[in-house]
Each structure stands twice: as structure tokens, then as C-alpha cells.
Amino acid sequence: MKLIVVIPDGMGDLRYPELDNLSPTEYADTPGLDEIVRRGQVGLAQTMIDGLPLGSLVGILGLLGYPPLDYFPLGRSIFEARALGIPLADQDVVFRCNIVRVDRYQRLVDFTAGQISETEARDYLATVKLAAPFELYHDLSYRNVLIWRDCPLPAHEMALMEPHESVGQMIDSLLPRYRNRIHMPLTHLMRTSYCQGLMLWPWGPSQAATIPPVSYRLTMVTALSFVSGLTQSVGGQVIIPVGATGYLNSDLAAKCAALIGQLPELDVGIIHCNAPDEEAHVQSLPGKIQAIEAIDRLVISPLLHHLDTLAEPYRLLICPDHYTCCLDGRHRPDPVPFAVCGHQLTPNHHLCGYSETAINRASTGTIKSYDLIPQLSGYRSSAG
Predict the structure, then answer these.
(1) What is the mean predicted confidence (pLDDT) over 104-109?
(2) Is 131 exposed, middle or buried (0-12, 13-18, 19+ CB in 10 A)?
(3) What pLDDT shows up at residue 130?
(4) Per-residue pLDDT tens over the stretch 146-195
């Protein structure tokens, strides 16, 4: 049996008066997702873990079958570095490094610099002068990886504010700290990188970590380097289709086609779709609804219809990695509602479609994220 998973990043949300007191997913037109609910089972998965950052690394690490408390390597930058092929030594510290926009009052106003284009990003980065021990590697749009070679400080003792959680705040209140004191090397890097309203923002420090491989044939289709690097680290295959961007303009049809083409070679296949999270971070209800509808139309519905034509049994799971709320642009720790249909699954509810509120009411308990794939597929990670 094959298990296919769609992760609509940050899809969970609240209800809003301007959406007739519905959530973005409830408001969106999602016939494919609603069909999965009607045909299958629903439940709640606890993807966020007390004591760990609220975010996709914790969520996806768990969904791959790894208890995050045991395997969380401080930050996802280590996986982005691996995806970019950057060689690392044990003493190197790796940071995520956004290009952000600040206003004339030195206030952080956009953690993506307006989803800066590749051309604009490269033009800006050409103005940045870094000296050893720092090295900067460009990834995509506002995303970069910063390496501190042979760093004398342990990553876990650095306190760097997450830019997506800090929009609207003054830069001076957000400067990097080490043991509760402003850390001058990183602060100097930020200050000297300023040019025409743009600035580098290092965060999410991490160091080399070893994760045992999965015991099943895993394929991940994604646009994000950290998801790619994480998958490679556990022995999975990664496909990044041409046109996959992680934004509203991502070629979702290419993602779906890539996974369908790989079906004979996999046991578990995952498509990660990032746009709902990006739109929620900028508090765009219309954008998030558009992202959800596109995932349903171009990924979920075609997958469901194709899987129905196969002789081999399957299960199709739709599970966000976390909530990201348009109300404030932030992640939340709430258990995420999931829906799954397929082989030997009969409905455990009377719902007609996907609804955070309705699934919360219909669920009798919460499953740990790292138990979800093993329970649905029988496959376990080497950690299980």
C-alpha cells in the first residue's frame, strides 16, 4: 500500500467576521478536500511540541516519523545548507538569513522584503561585504544561508529573533544576543548590510546533527531548501520541479505530475505546498484562500482521481504542519485537523467537508505527529 501526503503549510486558521465567520479553508472552494473528508476519516495531530519553536521544521520532522524533542537540531538552517551543497564542519554554525525591509524609523516592516525578486536580491547582495569567518550563500528570493566558520559559541546559547514573528518592532529591541548581552559580531553584520531600506537578518542558528534514515522509500516534492535538506538527511528522494517557488505563483500542477510520475518507486510520497503559510504571514485572507483553492484544484483533486484509477491500494492524507493565522501573521500550537481516505478506511464522522471547528468537535483524541505515518502506512522511521 502507498501513502500519499499533502502538507498545505500553515493552512490551519481562525474564523473571521469578514469571511462570514468562516476560516479561510472553510470559505475556500475545496471539492477535492471535501470529498476526502466525506469518504474517509478525520482527526487531530499534535505537530507543535512544548519547548520547541512553532514552525515547519518541528511539524514536518514529526510528520516524517521523528519525535522532534529527540531530533530537533535547533534550527532548519542546517538542512538548507545541506540542500545547497555547502560543506560543513562540526564547529560551524549555520543561520537562516533573510533579506528584510526596514523603514526610516529603523522598524522591521517586511520579513521577505516584499517577496524580493531574484534580480533584486542579487543586486542587493552585491552591495554586502562580508569578511571571515562569515560566508553567505543565496538560496531563493529573500532566503539565504549564513555560515560562521569555526564558531567559538554554541548555537543553543545564541538568541536571535525570528523576523516573521517580529514585524512592526524596532530593530534595536531585536538585536542578536549571547548570554543575554547584545552580540556584536552578528549585530555589526546586520548594521553594515543596510542599503536602501534592505538589511540581512540572521536567525535560526544550528549545528551539524545526525538523523537516522527512514526505513521506507520516501519521495518529497517541494520548493523549499530546508524541506529538501531534511529529506536528503533521512535518505529520501527530493524533486524540485521547474516553476516550484513556494509562493502563489508556484507551478502546483508540475508538483502533482512529478509525484504521480514517481509513484512506482515510492512507499510514501509527500507534496509540500508553502503558499498558505506565506500569505498568512503577510495577513492576506484573499491570498490564503487563493492558495488553498489552488492546492485543491491542482494537487489534491488530480491526485485523488489518479489514485482511484490504480490497482494498488492507497491512502491519501491531507495534513497541515501547523496553524498560521492571518489575524497576526503568526504560528499557533493548536493540534492540526487532518483528513485521510483510501484503503480500508470507513468514515468515523458525519461531516460533509473540511472544517477546523467541525473536525475538532468530531475528534475523540489527538495523535502525535510522529505516529501518524506509521499508523496509516505501517512504515516507521529508524527512530521509531
Answers:
(1) 95
(2) exposed
(3) 93
(4) 999 999 988 888 999 999 989 999 999 999 998 878 888 999 999 999 99
Is residue 247 within 8 A of residue 142, CB to CB? The reply is no
Question: Distances in Å between the alpha carbon of 270 and those of 35, 52, 182, 217, 278?
Answer: 19, 24, 41, 11, 19
Say which residues have a Cβ less than 8 Å from residue 223's Cβ, sequence separation at least 6. 140, 240, 244, 245, 246, 250, 272, 274
- What's the pLDDT band for 382 if we cut at 50, 70, 90? low
Same domain flag for 64 and 185 = no
Closest Cα to residue 205, out of 95, 88, 98? 95
Cell of 333: 500550537
- The total number of structural domains in the chain stands at 2
Q: How many helices (H) and strands (E) does the chain have?
A: 14, 18
Do 306 and 373 reside in the same domain of the chain? yes
In whole angstroms, give the CA distance from residue 367 to residue 32. 24
Same domain, 238 and 341: yes
Query: Quick one: pLDDT at residue 74?
Result: 63
Starting at the edge strand found earlier in the chain, the sheet holding 158-159 runs 158-159, 177-178, 181-182
Label residue 233 left, alpha or beta by phi (over 0 means left) and psi (-120 to 50 means alpha). Answer: alpha
Residue 382 lies in a domain: no
Average pLDDT, the chain: 95
pLDDT beyond 60 at 383: no
pLDDT tens for 295-346 read 999 999 999 999 999 999 999 999 999 999 999 999 999 999 999 999 999 9
Residues 107 and 196 in one domain: yes
Same domain, 65 and 90: no
Q: Which residues pair with 11 in a beta bridge?
A: 323
The residue segments making up the domain with residue 167 are 79-206
Q: Output the pLDDT for position 379.
A: 84
Q: What is the DSSP string of 259-310?
A: HHHHGGG-SEEEEEE-HHHHHHHTT-HHHHHHHHHHHIIIIIHHHHHHHTT-
